[in-house]
Amino acid sequence: MQIIGELINASRKSIGKAIKNRDAAMIGRIAKQQVACGADYVDVNAGVFVGDEAEYLKWLVETVQEAVDVPCAIDSPDPRAVEAALAVHKGTPIINSISMEKDRHDNLLPILAGTDLKVIALCVEDGAMPETKEDRLRIAGRLVDDLVQHDVRIENIYIDPLVQPLGTTDTCGKAFLDAIEAIRETFSEAHTMCGLSNISYWLPNRGFANQIFMAMAIAKGLDGAIVDPRNKRMMATIQAAETLIGRDSYCENYLEAHRNKLFEFP
Ligand code: THG
């Protein structure tokens, strides 16, 4: 399971303030915490700084990479910001994300074409949001065809079927889960990815709902997620689900997690 730590996102008040103040100690601390808790990538998002996003995103990449050794997930639709971030990034980041929305697509495709960059392919197109499994699978197919035609390797594509809040439709959770399963069957060499906290947007006890939804998604084959890795219950859920579905030989990772007290909650 590939874990992207979601916390360095300027839309969160404390992070927006830290970025504005160029508080490298605070950004470095949050990056370190996420990696210590198991993040494979650190998401960096400076999207609220319209006009100055490129400069802030570049600073975030430099600051995060001074603190930790893992690559970043560069979270922006703006090609200027992505280019600025790539110019300073060491190692191979993941771009979050291309979609079939025309502007976003046409802006990011030239940056990705022929490279070894990893990329999240978000199942969204212009016009209506995807509703059914079939909508998601069709958009995923367009994205994969297009990226592969432009010499992006299929193993570097992480398809995000898009989690929507329950309350838009009762069945959007099931449509997402069925889409994960169908994507794994249809594009077996590609990966999947999602940010899943949206599912519980209107509900009380969101943490509990999010953990259960994660376990259900892992059962369908989800192999990447954008989460808060400091959330011990969520990380324990991920570990247990992976072991139970058979992705943990001799349950070694589960046993190690137990020894490291991952299953003991405050
Ligand atoms: N797919 C892809 N990228 C994504 C998402 C996705 N990036 C953004 C988002 N969804 C995932 N990232 C975050 C980052 C922070 C928070 C949630 C998702 C967060 N939320 C607080 C909450 O939900 O309670 C509220 C914000 C706050 O603290 O102010 O922190 O789906 N590809």
What is the topology?
Elements: E1 2-5, H1 13-20, H2 24-36, E2 41-44, H3 53-67, E3 72-75, H4 79-88, E4 94-100, H5 102-112, E5 118-125, H6 133-149, E6 157-160, H7 172-186, E7 191-192, H8 206-219, E8 224-227, H9 232-244, H10 252-259
Parallel strand pairs: 1-2, 1-8, 2-3, 3-4, 4-5, 5-6, 6-7
The structure holds (6S)-5,6,7,8-tetrahydrofolate.
What does this molecule look like?
The chain is α/β, with parallel strands linked by helices and 266 residues long. It folds into three domains: 1-85; 92-102 and 109-226, Alpha-Beta Barrel (TIM Barrel); 231-266, no CATH class. The chain has helices at residues 13-20, 24-36, 53-67, 79-88, 102-112, 133-149, 172-186, 206-219, 232-244, 252-259, and strands at residues 2-5, 41-44, 72-75, 94-100, 118-125, 157-160, 191-192, 224-227. An eight-stranded parallel sheet has the order 7-6-5-4-3-2-1-8. α2 packs across α3 (53-67) and α8 runs parallel beside α9 (232-244). The two termini are 25 Å apart. Bound molecules: (6S)-5,6,7,8-tetrahydrofolate. (6S)-5,6,7,8-tetrahydrofolate is lined by residues 6, 9, 12-13, 75, 96-97, 120, 122, 160, 163, 194-195, 197, 226.
Rg, please?
A: 18 Å
Write down the secondary-structure element order: EHHEHEHEHEHEHEHEHH
* Helix share, percent: 40-55%
Unreliable runs: none
User: What is the terminal-to-terminal distance?
Assistant: 25 Å
Count of structural domains: 3
Q: Strands of the largest sheet, in order across it?
A: 7-6-5-4-3-2-1-8
CATH architecture classification of the largest domain = Alpha-Beta Barrel
Number of strands: 8
How many helical elements? 10
Task: Report the bound ligands by name, code or SMILES.
Answer: (6S)-5,6,7,8-tetrahydrofolate
The level-1 CATH class of the largest domain:
Alpha Beta
Q: Could you tell me the strand content as a percent range? A: 5-15%
Overall structural class, as computed from helix and strand content, comes to alpha/beta
Taken from the alpha-carbon principal axes, the silhouette is globular
Specify the biggest β-sheet.
8 strands, parallel
Overall average residue pLDDT: 97
Any idea what the CATH superfamily of the largest domain is called?
A: Dihydropteroate synthase-like
The CATH topology annotation of the largest domain reads as TIM Barrel
